[in-house]
Design goal:
Number of strands: 0
Shape: rod-shaped
Oligomer: single chain
Order of helices and strands: HH
Strand content: under 5%
């Protein structure tokens, strides 16, 4: 497989992972907002940490994907 095809496939996989992480992040934030006063503080803390971790993963995947796109431009 040519390098350009490999980069295109990697970018495609990053798009899928990015979409899944976005959907997960939106769901976690929505759950957190809906259940803010109804659940234990421990569960709220766990959900808040999960939101931050998923958001960090979104930023990381986005940066890696843009690096791959930049590599694609160089070819």
């Amino acid at each position: 497989m040519a390098r350009i095809d490999k980069l295109k496939e990697e970018i495609g996989w990053f798009k899928i992972v990015f979409a899944i992480l976005i959907a997960t992040d939106i769901s976690l934030v929505a759950w957190l907002v809906q259940n803010y006063g109804k659940v234990s503080p421990r569960l709220l803390i766990v959900c808040t940490v999960a939101v931050f971790l998923v958001t960090f993963a979104i930023v990381w995947v986005n940066r890696v994907a843009y690096r791959k796109i930049d590599q694609l431009e160089e070819l």
